[in-house]
Amino acid sequence: MNRSKALLLVFLFAAFSLSSCSGPKGRVICTVNCGGTANLSFTMVADTLPASPTILSFQASIIGVTVTSSTSTKTLSPPSAPIDLMRLQTDSAYLGTLTNVPSETISSFSVALSSQKMTIFNNTGVALTSPPCAVNAICTFNPNAVGSVLIDKVNQTFSSNAGFGLDINLANAITITGTTLNVNFSPVANNVFTEFTLPRTGSNLASTQFDLIEDVTGVVTVSGQNATIKNPLTNATLTAAATSSTVFDTDPTTTLCPTTTKQTLATCVSNNQIASMDIIVNSDGTTSIQEIEPLLATQQDTVEGIVVGVTQGSTTQFTLIVTDMLPAASNSLIGNGLLSDGDGLTVNLMNANNFLIDTKGLNLSSYPGNTSNFTGANNTGALNLGQRVAVHVTGFTGPSGSTLASVTSDTVTLRWSRFAASLSASGTPAFSINGLPINFNNSGIAQVQTFSQTNLDGITNTGNLSSTKTVYIRALYIENPGFTLVPAFYAAKVRQH
Questions:
Q1: Which residues, at least 6 apart from 97, have a Cβ–Cβ distance to it below 8 Å?
Q2: Closest by alpha carbon to 165, among 218, 232, 95, 115?
Q3: What is the mean pLDDT of residues 362-390?
Q4: Which residues contact 300 (CB under 8 A, 6 or more apart)?
Q5: Cβ count within 10 A of residue 200
Q6: What 3 state SS string does 393-441 have?
């Protein structure tokens, strides 16, 4: 999609309102009647998107994970906060750890899930009737798909702590029949859910680490060596401990946790700041901090989202699909229930002299000519469809009929695009991709740069990427109007299933 076509997306929002010793993979970890108990940790990922429609946001809640063995049934109740399943293309969600599970054969897992809200770009080529959505329009709806899914391929026995990943095949859950969009998690025959053991083969985690939960963002509280991140809207929390290996990164303005000071948990982050944290789920069920970064010195009205339109003829107005919100601690403009994840939002820049990049420790100093296309900007000329940005909200107007909610903003911070693409050429530390999702305004071949801090999942290095499999990437996306920058993507995560 070229930029002129991409600009038209903003006009399409009228439709928006609408007892075995061995198990899978040859894992042999016990003999029959082992005795004792163990802790079972669970994370979740997603892959294999439908060809159409293009899913921009899909909020869903995991109600429970039930483990059935020969003598017991135990249910894990994850946090009630919705998860954006699109985020799970590259990231993992931590569902929790079941403790004191009898060390015996597990006959099955089951997952109870309810969907909340989906936002799509209708590239099916037909106007949908259920839900109503015109061709090439962006629409939001509530699929109301509730399912309790039995994962009946489990037959494992364990004698020690174990970790399991639950993988959602989104193409099997989301289908089109005629002009009807179907969302169904339940039928086992659809293979919507599969299970795998942690850590995943090819991960660059240690053998004592099950998974990595990345970019957990919210209000931070520090207590000794522990940091707790809390979402102020849902009250969902995650706590992890700093270790000798924890990395401390400066904020986008480079004023918080600067590299010139001694970097420790106590000196880098403070209570009630906004921070981002990467959390390791350890094999003993504990959690530790891989990386932590303060983002804002105080709790401010902030909206993060995917850029889906730049208003033609304007240098100050663009449109987002909201993916995250952080309200101010008091007198919030956005914490009033009139705006939520998955909604469309019009952003009007006013005195926007702060275009920042959240590098999260990636060394972009070798690419000053590229990064200046964003940090040197003060208008929408720096923006490209598919980018994720966070905006500081200085004014808010609620939605009215088919008119989207709108905000004014003085600060735009580039954050992490999460997407699937095809491999054009493998390599390390850089590789090339094409086949970006249609909501990007980049239809050619683009280079992805990796770094020593880039987290790998399913591959030992990017030179081993397979051309027959989809590549899932979380990266900063920076481009110029001619789409000639090399690289265009700066990866914090590369995953291949």
A1: 39, 40, 41, 42, 76, 281, 285
A2: 95
A3: 96
A4: 274, 326, 328, 392, 393
A5: 22
A6: EEEEECCECCECEEEEEEEEEECCEEEEEEEEECCCCEEEEECCCCCCC
Q: Which residue type sits at 410?
A: D
Per DSSP, the chain holds a count of helices (H) and strands (E) of: 4, 31
Alpha-carbon Rg for the chain, nearest whole angstrom, is: 22
Residues 321 and 376 in one domain: yes
β-sheet bridge partners, residue 296 = 274
Cis amide linkage into residue 327, ω under 30° from 0: no
Q: Which segments within 236-273 are labelled E, that is strand? A: 237-241, 247-248
DSSP H or E segment with residue 78:
none
Rounded percentage of the chain residues whose pLDDT exceeds 90? 69
Tell me the per-residue pLDDT of 212-259, one tens digit each, with 9 for 90 and over: 999 999 999 999 999 999 999 988 899 999 999 999 999 999 999 998
- Dist. CA 121–CA 49, nearest whole Å: 13
Angle at 394 between CA 17 and CA 371, to 5 degrees: 90
* Beta strands at 446-449 and 430-434: parallel, antiparallel or unpaired: antiparallel
Same domain, 406 and 422: no
Cβ atoms of 461 and 478 within 8 Å: the answer is no
Q: Are 86 and 182 contained in the same domain?
A: yes
Handedness of CA 22, 23, 27, 33 (dihedral sign): negative
Token output for 47: 């892959």
Structure tokens at 184: 């169904």
Report DSSP state, residue 152: T
CA distances for 355 relative to 251, 344, 430, angstroms: 13, 21, 26
On whether both 291 and 406 belong to a single domain, the answer is no
Q: What φ, ψ does residue 374 adopt, rounded to 5°?
A: -105, -55
Question: Residue 204: inside a domain, yes or no?
Answer: no
Give me 266's structure tokens. Answer: 């106590």
149 and 18 assigned to the same domain: yes
Helix (H, G, I), strand (E, B) or coil at 114: strand
**180, 327: one domain:** no
pLDDT in tens, 70-123: 788 889 988 778 899 999 999 999 999 998 888 877 878 888 888 789 999 999
Instruction: Show the domain range for 119.
Output: 3-198
In terms of domains, do 306 and 233 share one? no
Domain harbouring 433, CATH code: 2.40.50.320
pTM: 0.91
CB crowding 254-269: b at 16 or more within 10 Å, else e: eebbeeeeebebeebb
The total domain count for the chain is: 4
Cα separation, 407 vs 349, whole angstroms: 9
Of 265, 296, 327, the last residue of a domain is 296
The domain boundary, picked from 390, 414, 438, lies at 414
Q: Burial letters for 353-390: b for 16+ Cβ neighbours within 10 Å, e otherwise?
A: eebbbbbbbbebeebeebbebbbebebbebbbbbbbbb
**85 three-state secondary structure:** coil
